[in-house]
């Protein structure tokens, strides 16, 4: 049996969208503030988020174990668009952009 105790690190699973809310991107990071800045500044111009201008944070979950965060990221990525939107709307009913909370 694997038993998880509280870890000392914080990891985030997050969902980004574009200005028109037509694209959904799911990622994982240990520094959401930095990662949002990287997406916004198009650090990698060939990336999905750069091509589709997806840098608006609309959802995130916090974890203390990277293994659990990666597992959750994979779960979310495998959801249909409709299920992803339902997940987002549970905590962000108006699909507002939350980037300002991490400036």
TrEMBL record:
InterPro entries the record matches: GIY-YIG_endonuc (IPR000305), GIY-YIG_endonuc_sf (IPR035901), UPF0213_domain (IPR050190)
Stored Pfam families: GIY-YIG (PF01541)
Annotated ranges, domain GIY-YIG: 9-87
Record-stated family: Belongs to the UPF0213 family.
Cross-referenced PROSITE patterns: GIY_YIG
SUPFAM superfamilies: GIY-YIG endonuclease
Highest taxon of source: Bacteria
Name under which the protein is recorded: GIY-YIG nuclease family protein
